[in-house]
Design brief:
The chain is an alpha+beta fold and about 290 residues long. It has helices at about 45-55, 80-95, 105-110, 125-190, 200-210, 215-235, 240-260, 265-285; strands spanning about 5-15, 20-25, 30-35, 60-70, 80, 115.
């Protein structure tokens, strides 16, 4: 099964300490690039989180954020009243020394570092639930990427099915196109036959027919298309392999178009190139 690199997942876990919510977003990227945002209380989990994500994902730019909402005793705030009294006393002493002093409000005191005290978060109680929620979020992200990858694989196979008739059209028409083109060329040169060397003329006609022959390009197109089918069917980490195959398909389609000497074969080559480009865009998102 193919796996997409685009997905979103969110998981929450509640405990006596409050709620932890993980948000994961991933998009396509050449390698695995993890952007991680953790609250200060759980900053030490950074290596573990990255390791768990790397165990499940191979490619993609992943944004990962953990939000904590503390409740109960863990969310309670307290004041350092001794520090408040000292600040108020010092403020009055300063007021006695300045002209027209401004009054110090309670909000001014609350903004002073250390006045408001936050209780120590119960990290030991939180950590197992937080890690479990991360695993659940990763499960959801991977499942979403799998679903997207399966659908992308179906689209690639549909494009291959659409390419096959165009390749068959070119293969069926090329002998006739070469023969017709050769006849037209011979007719045009007939008037100059007396002025041209017959052996040289035959050599040029053979060379021209060879340049128009696209049998090798058609065979390579068939081979690459079959390989794309195999890779899509087998699945796994196929993104880079499929990207290479799209380049090879496009190379053969370009040659096919450049050698075309009839409107119907030219149109078939254009349709092939359009389908390859559609596949190439889909492949960019495969892990």
């Amino acid at each position: 099964m193919l796996r997409s690199m685009t997905a979103y997942a969110r998981r929450e876990k509640e405990g006596r300490w409050g709620t932890a919510a993980w948000e994961l977003r991933s998009v396509n990227h050449r390698f695995l690039d993890i952007s991680l945002r953790l609250p200060d209380e759980l900053r030490h989990l950074d290596p573990q989180v990255r390791r768990r994500m790397a165990d499940r994902l191979r490619r993609g730019k992943v944004e990962c954020q953990l939000r904590l909402q503390m409740t109960g005793a863990a969310a309670a705030l307290s004041l350092d009243m001794e520090l408040v009294k000292n600040l108020a006393h010092i403020s009055r002493q300063v007021d006695e020394q300045v002209f027209n002093p401004s009054p110090v409000s309670s909000m001014d005191l609350l903004r002073w570092p250390g006045v408001i005290q936050t209780p120590q978060a119960p990290v030991d109680d939180m950590e197992p639930d937080v890690v479990a929620a991360l695993d659940e979020a990763l499960d959801e992200l991977v499942a979403t990427r799998d679903r997207e990858g399966r659908r992308t694989g179906e689209l690639l196979l549909e494009r291959l099915d659409a390419m096959a008739p165009h390749v068959a059209t070119v293969r069926r028409r090329m002998p006739q196109v070469i023969a017709q083109t050769r006849e037209r060329l011979q007719g045009r040169l007939e008037e100059l036959r007396g002025e041209l060397d017959q052996q040289r003329l035959e050599q040029e006609l053979v060379y021209f027919a060879h340049r128009m022959d696209v049998a090798e390009e058609l065979d390579r197109l068939d081979t690459h298309m079959e390989e794309v089918r195999r890779v899509v069917t087998e699945g796994g980490e196929a993104g880079r392999r499929l990207d290479f195959l799209m380049q090879e398909l496009n190379r053969e389609a370009n040659t096919l178009a450049s050698k075309s000497a009839a409107s119907d074969t030219t149109q078939a080559a254009v349709e092939i190139k359009v389908l390859i480009e559609q596949m190439r865009e889909q492949v960019q998102n495969i892990e």
